[in-house]
């Protein structure tokens, strides 16, 4: 069996993925709130991170969102991949090709009851 077909989040959510650029100073609670709002709209989120601190902020936001979802009988699922993105340089405004870590974040029903 092709392992790529077991859990193809990018294909499952291809029609409803919202891209976010996560920076090292992205507010965790604000990003978690945005993730939860998009989930309510039936969408998934792609968190594009450049650097370890940005990746850390994204994972923390997904974790906060997971805590909120657990109370509703749902959980966050996440997969990671490298992606080439054109990022606008803050100084020059020109597009720069960069490799990001792309976290595709979705939600599913809890597989095991939460809290015992």
Polypeptide structure, described:
It is a single chain. By secondary structure, the protein is α+β, with helices and mostly antiparallel strands. It has one domain (16-109): Translation Initiation Factor IF3. Helices cover 31% and strands 36% of the residues. The chain contains three helices and four strands; from the N terminus they run H-E-H-E-H-E-E. It has helices at 9-12, 28-40, 52-70, and strands at residues 17-22, 44-49, 74-88, 95-109. The chain has a four-stranded mixed sheet with strand order 1-2-4-3. A hairpin with a 6-residue loop joins strand 3 (74-88) and strand 4. Helix 2 (28-40) packs across helix 3. The chain is elongated. Mean pLDDT is 86; it is low at 1-7.
Number of individual domains: 1
Q: What share of the residues lie within helices?
A: 25-40%
Return the CATH architecture. Answer: 2-Layer Sandwich
- Sheet-strand content, in percent, reads 35-45%
- Supply the CATH superfamily name: Alba-like domain
Number of strands: 4
What sort of overall outline do the alpha carbons produce when their principal axes are compared?
elongated
Biggest sheet, spatial arrangement of strands? 1-2-4-3
Task: Look up the CATH topology.
Answer: Translation Initiation Factor IF3
Secondary-structure element pattern, one letter each? HEHEHEE
Radius of gyration: 15 Å
The biggest sheet, with number of strands, parallel, antiparallel or mixed sense and barrel status, is:
4 strands, mixed
Euclidean distance between termini CA atoms: 35 Å
């Amino acid at each position: 069996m092709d392992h790529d077909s077991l859990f193809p989040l990018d294909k499952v959510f291809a029609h409803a993925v919202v891209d976010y650029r996560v920076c090292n100073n992205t507010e965790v609670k604000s990003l978690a709130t945005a993730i939860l709002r998009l989930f309510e709209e039936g969408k998934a989120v792609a968190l594009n991170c450049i650097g370890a601190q940005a990746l850390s902020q994204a994972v923390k936001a997904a974790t906060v969102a997971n805590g909120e979802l657990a109370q509703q009988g749902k959980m966050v699922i996440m997969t990671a991949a490298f992606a080439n993105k054109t990022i606008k340089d803050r100084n020059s405004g020109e597009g720069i090709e960069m490799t990001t870590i792309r976290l595709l974040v979705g939600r599913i029903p809890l597989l095991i009851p939460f809290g015992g």
